[in-house]
Amino acid sequence: MNSRSHTVAVPLASPQVFRHGIRHPDLWLWDAWTYTDESTLHLFCLALARTNSCGQAITPADRNDYPFHVRHFSSGDGGESWRDCGAYLCPDERPGSPTEHNIWSGSALLHGDQLLFGFTGVTKPGVGRSFHQSICLLTSSPEATPDLADTVVLSDPSRDYEAIRKAGYYLGPWSTLGSDGGEEDGPILAWRDPFFVPEDDGTLRAYWAGKVGPAEPAVASGRVRLTDEGYVMDKLYDPIVPPDVSQYTQSEVPKVYRNPRDGSLLMLTSTCNRVSEDQPDEEVSKELRLYQAPGFDGPWTPYAADGATLPGIRHLFGGEFSDVDFVSRRASLIAPYTEMAEPELQLTFADIRKVSLEPENVKKPAPAA
Question: InterPro entries attached here (predicted)?
Answer without folding.
Answer: Glyco_hydro_beta-prop_sf
